[in-house]
Amino acid sequence: MITIITLVIMFMILGGIIKLFFRATFGIFKILGSIIAFIAFPVLFLAGGVIVVPLILILIALGFMAMAASLS
To answer: Are 13 and 57 in contact (CB under 8 A)?
Structure first.
């Protein structure tokens, strides 16, 4: 039950990160967003397991939200 909840939270955070990058007008941020979505997420998921990954994604999401807020 806990793993299902964490998976849902992870994908919600990942979707938020992707939306932030698609809203950004700079091409570099879109490239970084796609790299994080398609490469880093599965690698982190396989390496870190279900407990570590949500913490990492939350930190990444907070960092990108701060970066997007400073850009806008």
So the answer is: yes
**Which residues constitute the domain of residue 44?**
2-71
Q: Is the dihedral of CA 44, 46, 47, 49 positive or negative?
A: positive
Contact residues for 13 (Cβ-Cβ < 8 A; gap 6+): 54, 57, 58, 60, 61
Read off the pTM: 0.30
The number of distinct structural domains making up the chain is: 1
pLDDT tens per residue across span 12-47: 777 777 676 666 555 666 666 666 667 666 666 666
